[in-house]
């Protein structure tokens, strides 16, 4: 449709996407066969039908289970290239991509394997599609902070390969504050900081902790701030970018439906929001009846389901460049 085309034609940065959340069903089944990993589904069609989630933690069970098919460097290369091909179709000029090292280290897959593979895929994607990328190493908030510290120590020799750190996984009951020392050390290593916060109901406090205790410059999701007037006003005043993912939020039932997503209200409140995908193949089936709900689908959903005008869509795309970790000179090139 006309709308889909115009959403794809707008140059945009994607700031919130998990590379493990980019395991397309095609790649999932191909790697499972190659690496002899048993999947709980007999076919792609069966998996597609099963991708109906009741909550963030319900989704995370499927997400972490699927990571088991990622074994060799080449698997990670393919995974990265799969994202890049889709990002190109969606008009992405720059992507800041999260990865979850703890999900691999705990299975005996080394950080070298993960990083070498991802870098190869991103390099191939850059030469093929011209998309620049950065990597964000995420820690699991539902594991001990000392686990995250050990992980940060492991990445020290490769610190120049990553641009920042983040915090993800199950949120309710897992506050940000215990990760103070992890983020302090990451910053001392020259890394930028972001964190998932205020994704789930009742978790607005994590937004405040992510800013005040972890020193984050950006917030992933952050949608729960709409229930806290003072916090919302603070985020507006301090121009904190929020990487919002409407289709993911609908798929993981943190909002009742796509139509009821607060993204447009957030924009009208003066928040610096961006639109992003989160986990494209997981979010598509239940919400837009598609195998892939990438950033293009998020922009399209904003226009068709959330009432964003063309001007508002353009504002979001501009926000995405401004909220990126590109240098001032690089930003000027896109704006
Ligand atoms: N890891 C992958 N997707 C996530 C999400 N939506 N929230 C928290 N952790 C995640
Ligand atoms: Zn996320």
UniProtKB/TrEMBL annotation:
Gene Ontology biological-process annotations: adenine catabolic process; hypoxanthine salvage; nucleotide metabolic process; purine ribonucleoside salvage
Top-level taxon of the source organism: Eukaryota
Signal peptide segment: none
All copies of domain Adenosine deaminase, residue ranges: 11-335
A molecular-function term among this protein's GO annotations: metal ion binding
Pfam families on file: A_deaminase
Keywords in alphabetical order: Hydrolase, Metal-binding, Nucleotide metabolism, Purine salvage, Zinc
Cofactor: Zn(2+)
Keyword ATP-binding appears in the UniProt entry: no
UniProt pathway annotation: Purine metabolism; purine nucleoside salvage
A Gene Ontology cellular-component term: cytosol
Alphabetized PANTHER family for the sequence: ADENINE DEAMINASE
NCBIfam families for the chain: aden_deam
Protein name from the UniProt record: Adenosine deaminase domain-containing protein
């Amino acid at each position: 449709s006309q709308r889909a085309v115009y959403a794809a034609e707008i140059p945009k940065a994607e700031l919130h996407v998990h590379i493990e959340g980019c395991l397309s069903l095609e790649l999932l089944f191909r790697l499972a066969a190659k690496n002899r990993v048993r999947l709980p589904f007999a076919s792609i069609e069966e998996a597609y039908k099963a991708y109906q989630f009741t909550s963030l933690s319900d989704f995370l069970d499927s997400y972490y289970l699927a990571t088991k098919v990622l074994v060799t460097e080449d698997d990670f290369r393919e995974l990265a290239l799969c994202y890049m091909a889709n990002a190109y179709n969606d008009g992405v000029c720059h992507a800041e991509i999260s990865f979850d090292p703890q999900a691999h280290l705990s299975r005996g897959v080394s950080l070298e394997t993960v990083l070498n593979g991802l870098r190869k895929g991103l390099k191939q994607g850059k030469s093929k599609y011209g998309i620049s990328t950065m990597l964000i190493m995420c820690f699991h908030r539902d594991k001990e902070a000392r686990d995250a510290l050990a992980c940060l120590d492991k990445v020290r020799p490769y610190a120049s390969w990553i641009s920042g750190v983040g915090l993800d996984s199950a949120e309710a009951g897992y506050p940000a504050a215990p990760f103070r020392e992890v983020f302090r050390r990451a910053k001392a290593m020259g890394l930028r900081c972001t964190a998932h916060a205020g994704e789930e109901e009742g978790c607005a406090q994590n937004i405040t902790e992510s800013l005040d205790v972890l020193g984050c410059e950006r917030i992933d999701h952050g949608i729960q701030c709409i229930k806290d007037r003072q916090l919302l006003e603070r985020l507006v005043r301090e121009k904190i970018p929020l990487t919002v993912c409407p289709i993911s939020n609908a798929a993981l039932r943190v909002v009742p439906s796509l139509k009821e997503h607060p993204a447009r209200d957030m924009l009208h409140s003066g928040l610096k929001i961006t639109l992003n995908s989160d986990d494209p193949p997981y979010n598509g089936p239940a919400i837009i009846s598609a195998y892939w709900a990438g950033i293009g689908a998020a922009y399209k959903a904003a226009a068709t389901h959330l009432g964003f005008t063309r001007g508002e869509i353009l504002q979001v795309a501009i926000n995405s460049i401004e909220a990126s970790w590109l240098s001032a000179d690089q930003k000027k090139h896109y704006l």
